[in-house]
Design goal:
binds guanosine-5'-diphosphate; six-stranded mixed sheet; six-stranded antiparallel beta barrel; 9 helices
Length: 460
């Protein structure tokens, strides 16, 4: 069969051979490593807020940013600076020609935060799907400015889609930061904050977010208020600032003893070596490990593991790391492939059975429906080959073998993909068992894999 190339949304060029200095792990006590993603409607202030953290934490120099932008007035003054912090990082990434996660990392007291997909200009949801599936924590930025919250939350706004995606893609904590509280239409008004919270809450619940896993706070990303420091402008809010919220979150339980599963986001060649960047979902990986690359069934060996520019001894579950491989040419690797154990490999299949929730569908959906399936970082064309049931609110079968299904329904169905994808049933391995179906640039629905087939029959 023809070797499939997964699309590369970055258009990332291959890496020139270049030598660079390596920092070696100094053995100092390790902080818990967490991945964080900023989501929200366009212009809600994701770049500004994230930039503010990176600048105030000293990760990116404000001066360096100012250099890029000398005609500040023409472009809107200070407000431009923080959003620009991310451009600066992107530039740096390009210049340094490594897929640097180190440079978009910041620290809190006991945790090390890796900002996934920091460059804020890609409003491209498929990309967000890859990024969000790597994150344990999502900060949903909502603009409180008059009219902006409303636009973002309308049917065509991105707020609803982002809420649903964070839940489906396995984010464990959601922080809803109601931003632009300093705006002249808002003036740190508690009423506006409460109004937004009251409107969003039911939708969050409906999307599967338990109130206990959601934190709320009012911020001004631009002024840095309630971001790194508490502000006195919201006496009605006594809670922690954003950084304090982050520090207080309990990290998700990590499956250290499971056979390793590493999902690949990017690949590049450096000094003749093949490198992969992605997330270790479960298990551990260290230099010298003999592993398997799926779905191509290729035996490879781990030469080195790096976090940012630092060589580390062993990658832990949840880590976003770069792995140098031997035994394979970089050309053979694609985004969405999985590095796993030889004795306990992940399944590769092109037929899955799923519980699927139809979120958006103009008319009805029937057998033969074609769309694009996204699971961890993998993407494949797919066709719905069977619809076996419609479920009721309790998850019981309400109708068997329907001729058609429609928006709002949860169904049991099968999808066949054009290429093999690496998946597991949701109950076995959540990160590789939940997926999103998209069509013509819109999220159609979300699903959980309940069975996979290796030879045509699906088995749970
Ligand atoms: P993104 O598309 O979500 O990344 O949004 P940006 O960070 O690029 O911000 C969009 C616009 O909102 C810019 O003009 C920012 O200056 C402005 N903005 C962002 N955060 C705030 C804030 O806290 N207060 C005010 N007043 N404006 C903000």
């Amino acid at each position: 069969p023809k070797q499939q190339e997964f699309p590369d949304p970055d258009g990332s060029p291959d890496i020139d051979e270049e030598t660079f200095e390596e920092e070696v792990d100094d053995g100092s006590p390790q902080k818990t490593h967490s991945n964080i993603v900023f989501v929200g409607h366009v212009d809600s202030g994701k770049s500004t807020t994230c930039g503010r953290i990176l600048v105030d934490k000293g990760v990116v120099e404000k001066r360096a940013i100012g250099r890029v932008k000398q005609d500040e007035d023409a472009q809107g003054g200070e407000e431009f600076i923080y959003a620009q912090a991310l451009d600066e990082l992107e530039e740096e990434r390009r210049r340094s020609k490594t897929f640097e996660c180190g440079h978009s990392m910041f620290e809190t007291e006991t945790k090390l935060w890796n900002v996934i997909d920091a460059p804020g200009h890609r409003q491209f949801v498929p990309h967000m799907i890859g990024g969000t599936s790597q994150a344990e924590v999502a900060v949903l930025i909502i603009s409180a400015r008059k009219g902006e919250f409303e636009t973002g939350f309308e049917k065509d706004g991105q707020t609803r889609e982002h809420i649903v995606l964070t839940k489906t893609l396995g984010v464990t904590h959601l922080i809803v930061a109601i931003n632009k509280m300093d705006d002249e239409t808002v003036h740190w008004d508690q009423g506006r904050y409460t109004e937004i919270k009251d409107k969003l809450s039911p939708f969050l619940k409906q999307s599967g977010w338990r109130p206990a896993d959601v934190r709320w706070l009012p911020i001004s990303g631009l002024k840095g208020e309630n971001v790194l420091h508490r502000t006195d402008k919201s006496p009605w809010y006594n809670g922690p600032c954003l950084i304090e919220v982050l520090e207080s979150l309990t990290p998700p339980e990590r499956m250290v003893n499971a056979p390793p599963i590493f999902t690949i986001q990017e690949k590049y060649k450096e000094s003749g070596d093949s490198n992969i960047l992605g997330k270790l979902e479960v298990g551990t990986i260290k230099a010298g490990d003999e592993m398997l690359l799926m779905p191509i069934n290729k035996q490879v060996k781990v030469k080195a593991v790096k976090k940012g520019n630092r060589t580390i001894e062993m990658a832990q579950p949840g880590d976003q790391v770069t792995i140098t491989l031997t035994g394979i040419d970089e050309q053979e690797i694609s985004r969405g492939y999985v590095l796993c154990s030889r004795t306990n490999p992940i399944h590769a299949t092109n037929l899955i059975e799923a519980q699927f929730m139809i979120m958006e569908c103009k008319s009805v959906m029937t057998k033969g429906y074609e769309a694009v399936l996204h699971v961890h970082a993998a993407t494949a064309e797919c066709i719905m080959t069977q619809i076996s049931a419609v479920l009721d609110k309790q998850g019981k079968v309400a109708q068997k073998n329907p001729d058609f299904v429609k928006q709002g329904q949860t169904i049991i169905c099968r999808f066949k993909t054009d290429i093999p994808i690496c998946v597991e049933p949701f109950k076995v391995l959540q990160p590789c068992g939940r997926f999103v179906i998209r069509d013509e640039g819109r999220t159609i629905g979300i699903g959980k894999i309940i069975g996979i087939s290796v030879k045509g029959d699906t088995k749970a």
